[in-house]
């Protein structure tokens, strides 16, 4: 692999950019933002994961600007593959879905920076500059607050038994099945379920499971079986 030389000094080698987004207008807007800065040169564009991986390997850009959702897959999965194949390549995840889950997903995938599409174009350019200089150091505007939210739970706190009941409900088990699984009476199982519903502010199984998914109390593989 031939690594790009990232030199921000005017007259030095420019930082090269690969834009990955399935919307032409967004790519054109990003291209315009980067072309206003003499330190950058947009050397390629891609509209899918497959095209992004192919062009990244061929062009060896200093930085890839990666959309989160692409027609043939996830930008996060593409980021993981790029980070594994090109350890020194900068990767900026750009998305309109800018929640904590997406931010931490970008961090865990090996991105260099995370920027919401609602941010000014200058923020994307600044993130690309950071990514080119320190590709393995993650930055995001809301990172400190997101970390605080993750470390300070604000939702209902379930006991180990309530968490177990929630998982069994998500598996589609009946009250009798839950009682058998927990080695308790059906009356006791109903009490556990009732307390769980109360904590989640739910009136039935479907409401409880949807609330649990929204609060992150159930992982995606535990998708409810109604």
Automatic annotation (TrEMBL):
- Return the InterPro entries for the record: CheY-like_superfamily, NreC/VraR/RcsB-like_REC, Sig_transdc_resp-reg_C-effctor, Sig_transdc_resp-reg_receiver, Tscrpt_reg_LuxR_C, WalR-like
> GO:BP terms for this protein?
phosphorelay signal transduction system; regulation of DNA-templated transcription
UniProt keywords (A-Z) are: DNA-binding, Phosphoprotein
Organism classification: Bacteria, Bacillati, Actinomycetota, Actinomycetes, Micromonosporales
Response regulatory domain location: 16-132
Q: Which PANTHER family match?
A: TWO-COMPONENT RESPONSE REGULATOR
Report if keyword RNA-binding is assigned.
no
Residue intervals of the HTH luxR-type domain: 151-216
Q: Which SMART domains match?
A: HTH_LUXR (SM00421), REC (SM00448)
Source organism superkingdom: Bacteria
Please name the Pfam families in this protein's record: GerE, Response_reg
Q: Please list the GO terms describing molecular function.
A: DNA binding
Query: Where 4-aspartylphosphate occurs, residue numbers?
Result: 67
The name under which this protein is listed is DNA-binding response regulator
